[in-house]
Amino acid sequence: MAPDIILLSIIFIFGVVIGSFLNVCIYRIPKKEDIVKTSSHCMSCGYHLKWYDMIPLLSFLALRGKCRKCKAKLSVQYPLIEAANGILYVCIVWTGGLGIDSLLYCLMASALLVLSVIDFRTYEIPFGINLFILALGLVRVATDASNILTYLAGLLAVSIVLAILYYATGGRAIGGGDVKLMAACGLLLGWKLIIMAFLLGCVLGAVIHVIRMKVSGEGRVLAMGPYLSMGVLIAALWGERLITWYVGQFL
């Protein structure tokens, strides 16, 4: 077990470090700000953070969730996103082992994490994130060319239906970003898993949003991106096993 624990610990740390960058993306992408060249700074006083202010998780704890200079409270989003990304990376590698699939799924998970937070806040899915996931799908096709039809079918399996719904309702029933998300993820997962992901996302969205409406008075309009992302991650991690189990019930 020792080597496994050490390996997973390293993967968790790597995921947490990437998670720190995801926080930058979540904040800057909706504002159309540069995510690379602009230096990190306090949102309240403009203090330019030093390297020791940006150690994932540890700096937040050491500073007790406050800016070093002005003492303004920092958003709890920072450690949560960092920890969540690290946990996702560990789950993906724990489930699928080390390999190209796990690498692609880790990158997809990070993209979905950014996408979910932005969509939850703005009801808009950045096109660049969908484009990034599509690029991952192209890599998947290139590394598994013998199953290219499975991935091409995945590109269209859900997205074509949603596209028809989008144009038929003028975008009232589904967002254009959701259509592109299902197309990009479909190319990466293949047709069986993307159909499962969509169904799971719809169920999760319906159940969770109804609870939110009852508990917090949330309106009827919901951002589907976070729920579709949940469905995609569940399908990517355990979809094949769930399909095998389900089919086995009828054989």
Could you characterize the architecture of this molecule?
The protein has 251 residues and is an all-alpha fold. The protein has a domain of 109 residues. The chain is 71% helix and 0% strand. It is built from ten helices and no strands. The chain is globular. The mean pLDDT is 91.
Compose a concise summary of this entry:
The chain has helices at 2-28, 58-62, 77-96, 100-122, 127-143, 148-157, 159-169, 176-189, 191-216, 225-248. The chain is mostly helical. The chain has a domain at 143-251.
Helix and strand layout, with pairings?
Blueprint: H1 2-28, H2 58-62, H3 77-96, H4 100-122, H5 127-143, H6 148-157, H7 159-169, H8 176-189, H9 191-216, H10 225-248
Helix pairs in contact: 1-3, 1-4, 3-4, 4-5, 4-10, 5-8, 6-8, 6-9, 7-8, 8-9, 8-10, 9-10
SSE arrangement, N to C:
HHHHHHHHHH
Mean pLDDT, to the nearest integer, reads 91
Main sheet: strands, sense, barrel: none
Structural class: mainly alpha
| Range of strand content | under 5%
From the N-terminal CA to the C-terminal CA, the straight-line distance is 37 Å
- Count of helices? 10
The best one-word shape is: globular
Rg is: 19 Å
Number of strands: 0
Helix content: over 70%
Ranges with pLDDT <50 over ≥5 residues?
A: none
